[in-house]
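Field: COMPLEX_INPUT
Field: COMPONENT_COUNT = four
Field: RESIDUE_TOTAL = 410
Field: MODE = joint
Values follow.
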Amino acid sequence: MAKQARALATRQTVLLAAAEVFDERGYAAATMSEILDRAGVTKGALYFHFHSKQELALAVIEGQGAWIAGWEPASDSWVQNLIDLGYAFAHALQSDPLVRGSIRLTIEHGSFTQPQIAAYQGWMDLVRGLLEQARDAGDLHPGIDLVAASGVITGAVTGIQLSSQVLADRQDLIQRMADLWTLLLPGLVQPHALARLSVAERAAS
Amino acid sequence: MAKQARALATRQTVLLAAAEVFDERGYAAATMSEILDRAGVTKGALYFHFHSKQELALAVIEGQGAWIAGWEPASDSWVQNLIDLGYAFAHALQSDPLVRGSIRLTIEHGSFTQPQIAAYQGWMDLVRGLLEQARDAGDLHPGIDLVAASGVITGAVTGIQLSSQVLADRQDLIQRMADLWTLLLPGLVQPHALARLSVAERAAS
DNA sequence: GGTAGGATGCCTACTGGACGGTATGCCTCC
DNA sequence: GGAGGCATACCGTCCAGTAGGCATCCTACC
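Field: COMPLEX_OUTPUT
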């Protein structure tokens, strides 16, 4: 395992460039040449680290799992944590190329059915966990189907994000997120809990 | 304007095949050869009717506008009309290849920025119109931002539809739609109006 | 109503270029 | 001196698009 430092650096450079190109063009329209140009490496370097375009895309998708795994709740209100998660994700979408590329690859289905489903599932599990905690704290309406709710929330966030991307290059994503919560929360949480939440983004995320 | 009948038929055949392939593969990964095979026509025929792959895709996208234009409200409750619209759209997504292909092309951004935005805008305008009627009828919570709400609703439906497609090939789309309305309506309509709505799909759409 | 002539609609063969991937060799550090 | 890390030249394939020819039907004039 020699020379790890340089090798890891170029690997990371390639991964980042690939994420950018995948984000901008999608999997099929992205070309290895453009990734090479943007990364400033040669074909030999790239294919040393990733044996195919597909493997490279899978590595990008994996970044999403890493982001999820790295997120941690910060509030003692679990619904608030859910809201905060949405905003944290929105900021990641605006600034982190790896997350952006990963999301695009996850969203457009095609050759990657397996990892795509896993990615969706990861989000839904995370959301469902938060909802369970919120329910146990007595914040949710009784009788809510948590699986259905987590599906709706992840789906809705996916769509909000997508439309924001197409219509405004994700510039208005934070605002749309706030709009979503405004509409969604009354059907989810009980009034007494609703009063304690800040739907708009909180400082220091 | 001679021989319209046969020409129109092949044009329609090509359009349908193209919609199917675009739906399954996306724009970039779709190949003209596959469209030709599926349509059972030759290159000459296709390129006689559509001068390029891009033009063909645009024609498919146009089908979406036609669907929107063809839809008509049937209830005297405007919120109910909104719900019904969602279900009608869901059924179209399950059965109408043109709508399926059109949606996929609209959703994946890339070369079509202009018509994509137009398509989104068409949906949002339609939804906003329904919401305005509902507001004027006194069904909505006072102070609701209709533009924001229509953005959230179209975005959420987009996402619901997409996740249903990736996870279950749109098999559970109707159920997810119901889940969405269950969560969304309490934040949108007033209780007295809510009581009069059927959130689940109504017979005879 | 028969036929010339022309447009419409379609077919087949081809082309140039780009793309993903490979083979082979060189440099550098342990 | 050997393996890890990378550079370069090359290859086969496939793809969007084109060129040019051919059949079919409509129109017009006799």
